[in-house]
C-alpha cells in the first residue's frame, strides 16, 4: 500500500519539500512505471492512447519509481562542480564576476532599505535574502527582452537588466523621479516597459495567467515569435491559487511560450510549504499539464542558470509552457510587516544562512578559479554600500510628484469623468483647507508645487 509519511518539518532538509513518501508495493498500488505489462489486445479508448489493463492499480508519483523528484545541482556546498556536472562555457571570468557582484548587491540594498523602513522613512520593503542565486542565475539565462512578470521579490532580475539604483530608490520613495508609477504604487511594485518587466500586482498569482496571455501575444507577433518567451516568477504559496492552474493550463493547451519559475522558499508568510501541498512540491504539477519540468537547487547560481537556459530553449522551440521549481529558503522576514520569529525558530534561520549559502558557494567557485580574492570582496562591498547609501539619500531628498499626477496615467485613452470629478473636488478642498489645516499644510509641502496646480485649475 502507498503511504505518505508526514515528517515534522524541522526534521527535514528544508531545501527539499517537507514531505517524504515511502512506498511499499502491493498488488494494487505503486509507482506509475510498475504497471504490469499486459498485451494491448483489449482495444482502444476514444481520445486516448492509454493502454488498457485488467489489473486494479492506483499510482501517486511522477518519478516512476515512487521517489521524490530529484533536484539538479552543479556546485557542491563549497562551490566545487559536482562530478559530471556542466559548468556553462559562456560563464567566463567577466560574466561570473558580474553575476557575483549582482548577487552581493541585493543584500546590501536589503540591509539599508529594511533598516530605514524600521526608522519610518519608507512605507514598506521586502528583502531577497537567500534567493540571490535564483534571481541572478535566472536573469542571466534569459534574453533581456523576454517579458518578465514578477511577484514582488524579483528586484534582482530587473536590476540585472539595467534598472539602476537611482530608479529603485526613486520608486521606493514614490518621489517625482519615480520611473515606475510616479508615486502611485506601493514600494516594491516595480515595473519598467524599457526593461520588459511588467508592473508588479500583489494580489497573489494574478501575474500567472497574465503571463500565459503575454506569451500568446508574443507568439502572434511575427517579430517576436520564436525569439522571446514570457517568464513568470511566483512563490510556492501563490501556486496554491486557482490562477496558477489557469495559467498552466492555458500555456500548455493554447499553447503559449511561458516559462514558469516557482521560487519555493519554504514559506508563504507564516505558512510553511508542507502545509501548502500534499504532493511533491510544485514540480509534480508540471507533468499533469504535459509540461517539461525541472526542480533545481535555487541556492546554486550555475544550476539555476543552466536549468533556466535550457527551459527557455524548450519553451521557445516548442512554443509552450515549461516549469522550473527553484528550491531555496526565505532567510528574511516575509516583509517589513512581518516578524518571522513568531512562527519559526531563530536557529533554523541561522543554520540556513550558513548551509548552502548561495553567495558563499559562488564566491568559493570564483576564488578556486583565481577570479576573485578577499581584497576584491572587501572593496566591492565597500563600494556598493557607498553607492546604495548615496542613491538613498538623493532619492529621500527629492519631493513627491505634483499632486495632479495622482490622476494621470491611471487609464489609457480618454480620462474617465469620475477621475475628472475627483480631481476638481480635491482642488476645491485644497483651496478651502490647504492653507489652514495643519496636517494638509505639512503634507502639501512634501509635493512639488505644493498642490497649487490643482487649486488653480478652473472646474
Ligand atoms: C490573493 C491574495 N491572498 C493573500 C495575499 C496576502 N499575501 C501576500 S504575500 C503572501 C504569501 C505568498 O507566499 P509565496 O507565494 O510563497 O511568496 P514569497 O513571499 O514566499 O516570496 C500572502 C498570503 C495576497 N497578497 N493576495
Ligand atoms: Mg514562498
Walkthrough of the structure:
Belongs to the BCKDHA family. InterPro entries: Alpha-ketoacid_DH_E1_comp, DH_E1, THDP-binding. The chain is of the alpha/beta class and 459 residues long. The protein folds into 3 domains: 1-68, no CATH class; 93-396, Thiamin diphosphate (ThDP)-binding fold, Pyr/PP domains (Rossmann fold, 3-Layer(aba) Sandwich); 403-455, no CATH class. 37% of the residues lie in helices and 9% in strands. The chain contains 13 helices and 10 strands. The chain has helices at residues 93-118, 132-141, 155-160, 165-173, 207-220, 242-253, 301-318, 346-354, 358-368, 374-397, 417-433, 438-445, 452-455; strands spanning 2-5, 20-23, 147-149, 197-198, 230-235, 258-264, 267-268, 271-272, 292-297, 322-327. The strands form 3 sheets. It has a 6-stranded parallel sheet with strand order 4-3-5-6-10-9, with helices on both faces. A two-stranded antiparallel ribbon has the order 1-2. Helix 7 links the parallel strand 9 (292-297) and strand 10. The N and C termini lie far apart (76 Å). Mean pLDDT is 91; it is low at 1-27. It binds thiamine diphosphate and magnesium ion. Thiamine diphosphate binds next to strand 7.
Amino acid at each position: 500500500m502507498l503511504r505518505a509519511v508526514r515528517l515534522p518539518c524541522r526534521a527535514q532538509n528544508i531545501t527539499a519539500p517537507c514531505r517524504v513518501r515511502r512506498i511499499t508495493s502491493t498488488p494494487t498500488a505503486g509507482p506509475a512505471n510498475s504497471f504490469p505489462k499486459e498485451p494491448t489486445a483489449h482495444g482502444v479508448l476514444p481520445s486516448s492512447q492509454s493502454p488498457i489493463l485488467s489489473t486494479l492499480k492506483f499510482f501517486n508519483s511522477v518519478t516512476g519509481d515512487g521517489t521524490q523528484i530529484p533536484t539538479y545541482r552543479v556546485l557542491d556546498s563549497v562551490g566545487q562542480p559536482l562530478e559530471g556536472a556542466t559548468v556553462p562555457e559562456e560563464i567566463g571570468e567577466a560574466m561570473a564576476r558580474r553575476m557575483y557582484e549582482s548577487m552581493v548587491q541585493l543584500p546590501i540594498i536589503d540591509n539599508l532599505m529594511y533598516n530605514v523602513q524600521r526608522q519610518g522613512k519608507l512605507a514598506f520593503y521586502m528583502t531577497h535574502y537567500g534567493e540571490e542565486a535564483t534571481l541572478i542565475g535566472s536573469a542571466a539565462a534569459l534574453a533581456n527582452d523576454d517579458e518578465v512578470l514578477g511577484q514582488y521579490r524579483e528586484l534582482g532580475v530587473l536590476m540585472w537588466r539595467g534598472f539602476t539604483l537611482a530608479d529603485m530608490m526613486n520608486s521606493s520613495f514614490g518621489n517625482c523621479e519615480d520611473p515606475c508609477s510616479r508615486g502611485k504604487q506601493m514600494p516594491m511594485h516595480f515595473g519598467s516597459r524599457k526593461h520588459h518587466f511588467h508592473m508588479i500586482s500583489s494580489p497573489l498569482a494574478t501575474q500567472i495567467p497574465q503571463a500565459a496571455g503575454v506569451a500568446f501575444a508574443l507568439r502572434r507577433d511575427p517579430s517576436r515569435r520564436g525569439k522571446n518567451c514570457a517568464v513568470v516568477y511566483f512563490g510556492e504559496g501563490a501556486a496554491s491559487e486557482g490562477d496558477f492552474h489557469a495559467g498552466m493550463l492555458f500555456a500548455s493547451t493554447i499553447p503559449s511560450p511561458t516559462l514558469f519559475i516557482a521560487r519555493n522558499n519554504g514559506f508563504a508568510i507564516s505558512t510553511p510549504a508542507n502545509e501548502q501541498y500534499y504532493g511533491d512540491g510544485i514540480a509534480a504539477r508540471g507533468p499533469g499539464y504535459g509540461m517539461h519540468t525541472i526542480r533545481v537547487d535555487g541556492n546554486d547560481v550555475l544550476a539555476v542558470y543552466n536549468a533556466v537556459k535550457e527551459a527557455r530553449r524548450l519553451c521557445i522551440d516548442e512554443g509552450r509552457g515549461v516549469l522550473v521549481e527553484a528550491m531555496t529558503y526565505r532567510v528574511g522576514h516575509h516583509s517589513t510587516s512581518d516578524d518571522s520569529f513568531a512562527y519559526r525558530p531563530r536557529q533554523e534561520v541561522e543554520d540556513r544562512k550558513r548551509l548552502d549559502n548561495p553567495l558563499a558557494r559562488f564566491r568559493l567557485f570564483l576564488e578556486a578559479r583565481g577570479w576573485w580574492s578577499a581584497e576584491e570582496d572587501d572593496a566591492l562591498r565597500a563600494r556598493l554600500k557607498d553607492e546604495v547609501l548615496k542613491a538613498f539619500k538623493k532619492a529621500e531628498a527629492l519631493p513627491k510628484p505634483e499632486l495632479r499626477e495622482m490622476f494621470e496615467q491611471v487609464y489609457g485613452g480618454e480620462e474617465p469623468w469620475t477621475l475628472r470629478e475627483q480631481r476638481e473636488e480635491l482642488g476645491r478642498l485644497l483651496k478651502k483647507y490647504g492653507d489652514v489645516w495643519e496636517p494638509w499644510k505639512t503634507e502639501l509641502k512634501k509635493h512639488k508645487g505644493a498642490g497649487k496646480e490643482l487649486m488653480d485649475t478652473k472646474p
